[in-house]
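This is your field. Please look over both lines of this record.
***
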Amino acid sequence: MRPVPKIFVVFFASLCLASASLSIASLRRTSAETMRESAVSFLDSLSATQREKTVLAFTDPQRVGWHFIPMKMRKGLPLREMNQAQQSAALRLLRAALSESGYRKASQIMLMEQVLQLLEGPNRTWERDWQLYYVTLFGEPGKSDQRWGFSFEGHHLSMNFVCQGDRILDSTPQFFASNPAILRSEVSGAPLRKGTRILAEEEELAFELMASLSDAQRSQGIIAPEAPADIRAAGEAQPPTDTALGLAASELLPNQLSLLRNLIEVYVSAMPEEVAAERKRMIEGDGFEKIHFAWAGATEPGVGHYYRIQGPSFLIEFVNTQPDAEGNPANHIHCVWRDMTGDFDLPPRS
């Protein structure tokens, strides 16, 4: 096996430190409390100039600005402007905000930037760098009686939180993406191996559910012959409020319901246990039978496809239409969980 470049040795060490430091603390505190403690610790590690970039008012309009496309400038302080100890502190904060599976996805998405750098070569349009992920804090996390926000964002990753005291009040938009969806080549010097598939369950379970549908169910569930180019309302502060389309969960057989539940669980389980439990409580309280599953595009891999899962309290969108960096078709995933009761702990669209 080829040696991992030095830059990734540092990064993997930071990831291990971030996970290890939370293992005991998480048994004693809620995720919001651990996030607050991690945020204060991170801020304490920064210089005055770095804090100026990192901390914005809770009422700053940038709090509800988000996007996952490559950008030359974002709000907040990038990892590249931190020393190793500060990077570790930033990653501990991210780890506190996510479950183990969510953190693993986030870290692999960051590492995939280095894969893209190697695949695209010197003529690439956008700079690829795992250190171009930005940390922003809104308000004063040290004050447990006040709301405060946390954003961790860069290409193909946008995590957004609002906390107060011992509660995470909101955890959306929650956006993960992967290009390539499946790494089909062994890339010399890359930190990820051939076959890496960061968002496998999000895609495989949906195909399994589609394959289980009868012709009559498909006629209800398929809403368009072609997949859209991307998720809707990307970068907008609130999700779209269109009436749910597709096949109602009340029309599913028991095995199909199980697949739908498992697919929703994949998105829910990216968050800490108490956030996941609250999401599931709201779903069941609203009535699982009110959820709709909609599909557009091809029903086999390698051709553009899209699905939407919508209930009264949440919206999931998944799209895979773009080619990857090597030109393999439909090998570039975008997927999002949004809060139909209001992203960023704000009222929903009227």
The first strand starts at residue 55 and ends at 56. The first helix runs from residue 6 to 22. The chain has ten helices and 13 strands.
